[in-house]
Amino acid sequence: MAGFTEAKKTRKLIVLFTAITFLLITISIGSLLYLNHSINRFSDTLYKDIYRNTNLILRADRDLYQSSLLLQNALNPSLTGLQRSHFRQEFGDSLAETEKSINTIVRNLANVESYQNLDSSRKLLSEIRQELANFAGPFGQWREAAGLVLSAGSLNGGGNQGSSPAVYSEQLNDAHRSLDQAEQLMGIYAERVTADFQTQKSTIFALYSLLLFMLVLVIIYLVQRIVWLQSEMREDKVLYQLIGETMSDFILLTDVNGQILYASPSHSSALGYIPKKGEPLSNYIRESEIAWVKLKSIVQATPRMAELRMKSADGHWIWLETKVSPVKGNLSFPAQFMLVSREITQRKQYEERLHKLAFYDHLTSIPNRAHFKMYMENLLTNPDDRRQKFALALLDCDRFKQLNDTLGHLAGDEFLQLLSRELQQSVKGSGQAFRIGGDEFAVILHLGFTHEALHDILGRLLQLFNKQWSANNGSSFCTSASIGVALHPQHGSTINELLRAADLAMYRSKSHGGNEFNLYDKEIDEDYPEQESSRN
C-alpha cells in the first residue's frame, strides 16, 4: 500500500512538472515573439534615426553649397544695394541652416550612444563625430572669410570678384569632404548595426529553439514515465486486491467522515456479509453514535489499536481487534483511515468469564466481596468535588444456620439465590447489593435523598427478609435480618472505618433479637467495647 501511495505521489509530481513545462514553453514562445517584435521595433527606430541623420548631413551639404552660390551672387557688381542686401540675408540664413543641421546631428549621435553596445559600431560613431568635428574648422574659416569678403564688397560697391575663388575653394572643399565622409560612415554604420542585430536575433532564435527542443524531449520522457507508472500502479492495484481478498484479516478503508471506500471479502467469513461501499461505518459498529468519533480521536499521526464490535448477519456482535491507521493526504492531514482487524470474540468471552469469576459470586451471580472493595475504593478516591454521600448497610440473615440444619444446604443455597435476586431488584436505582460472606450482604445506598427516605428503604429491606420463603421442592420457612448502617463521611472515611461502624450497628440489631436496623452512633462503642470488626 505504501508503494501504491508513493506511485500516486510521483504521478502527481510528474503531472505538475509537465504542466509547469508546458507553461514555460508557452511563456518562452510568447517571450520570443515579444523579443522579436522588440528587436524589429528597435532596428526600425535605429534605422529611422540613421536615415534622419543622413538626410540632415545631405541637407547641411546642400545648404553649404547654396550658401556658396549666394555668396557669388552677393558679390556681383551689377547688383543694386537692395539686391545685394537680399542675397547677403539669404547667405546668412543658409549658413545658419547648415550649422543647425550639424548641431542636430551631433545631438542625435549623442543619443545613439546610449543604446548601441557593439565595439565596431562604437568605433564608426566615433569616426562620424570626428568628421563632424573636422567640418567645424573649415566651415568656420570659410564663413569668416566670406564675411570679410562681403564686408569689403559693401565698401567698394560690389568688390572684386576675383578674390571669391580664394575664399571658398580650399576651406569649402574641406567642409564638403567632411560631410561626404560623414555620410559614407553613416551608411556603413547603418549596415553594420543592421547586420549585428540580425546576427543577435538569429543567435537568440537558435538558443530558444534549442531550449524548446529540450523541453519537448523532457515532455516526451515524462509522458513515457507516466505511462510506465500507470502500468505499474495497475499491477500494484491487482496485487493489493489479491492480497486483500486472500488474507484472513479484515481490511476497511474509509474517508475522514467514516464512509466506506473499500471492504475486503474476508469480512464474509466472520460477519456473513461484506460491508457495502459508500455506506457509513457507523451502520455496522455497536454504539455507532460514539464509536466512529472514538476511532478518529485515538488516531493522531501514528497507527493505534482499538477494540470494537460489528454486527454479524445473524444479529450477533463480533468482537474485533482493530489497527486504525491514517492515510495521509495533502497538507499532512488524514485523507483516509485504514482499519485492519482480526476477530477476538472468543478471547473477549474468556476475559468476560474471568472477570465474572473474579468479581461476581458464583452461587448468586451478584457482585462479590472483591467487587464490593473495588466499588468502595472508587467511591472514596473520587475528587472532593465529585465525591458522593452514601450509606453502607450490612445485612445478616437471622436463623440461617437453622435453615441449613433443618432443610439442608441445597435449600440454603436456593434461598440465597432467591434472596439475592430480590435484594438486587429492591435497591435498583438507589444503590448496589453485594454478597460478602455466607449469609452476609452489603448494600451501598447513594444518599440523593433525605434520612426519612433512607429509613423507608431499610424498612423495605427488613420486609424483604421477613416473609414466607419456599425452597427445596415446596418447603416453607421464615427468616429475618439484622441490619447495621454507617454513613459516609460522618462515620468514617475509609473502608475499614465504615465496615467497623456498620458491623457494630448490625451487632446491636442482633443483640436485640434481630429483625431491625440500627444506625451507628458513638454510644455503640461504649455499649460494645469488646466487639471488634473483622472486616478488611
Description:
By secondary structure, the chain is α+β, with helices and mostly antiparallel strands. The chain is 62% helix and 15% strand. It has 14 helices and 12 strands. It has helices at residues 2-74, 81-112, 119-155, 164-168, 170-246, 267-271, 288-298, 345-359, 369-380, 400-407, 409-427, 451-465, 495-511, 522-527; strands at 250-255, 260-263, 304-311, 317-328, 334-343, 390-398, 431-435, 440-446, 468-471, 475-478, 480-488, 516-519. The strands form 3 sheets. Strands 2-1-5-4-3 form a 5-stranded antiparallel β-sheet. A 5-stranded mixed β-sheet has the order 7-8-6-11-12, sandwiched between helices. A two-stranded antiparallel ribbon has the order 9-10. The radius of gyration is 59 Å and the shape is rod-shaped. The two termini are 57 Å apart.
- Describe the sheet with the most strands: 5 strands, antiparallel
Termini, distance in Å? 57 Å
Structural class comes to alpha+beta
Radius of gyration: 59 Å
Mean pLDDT figure: 79
What is the string of SSEs from the N terminus onward? HHHHHEEHHEEEHHEHHEEHEEEHEH
Which SSEs are present, and which pair or pack?
Blueprint: H1 2-74, H2 81-112, H3 119-155, H4 164-168, H5 170-246, E1 250-255, E2 260-263, H6 267-271, H7 288-298, E3 304-311, E4 317-328, E5 334-343, H8 345-359, H9 369-380, E6 390-398, H10 400-407, H11 409-427, E7 431-435, E8 440-446, H12 451-465, E9 468-471, E10 475-478, E11 480-488, H13 495-511, E12 516-519, H14 522-527
Parallel strand pairs: 11-12
Antiparallel strand pairs: 1-2, 1-5, 3-4, 4-5, 6-8, 6-11, 7-8, 9-10
Helix pairs in contact: 1-2, 1-5, 2-3, 3-5, 10-11, 11-12
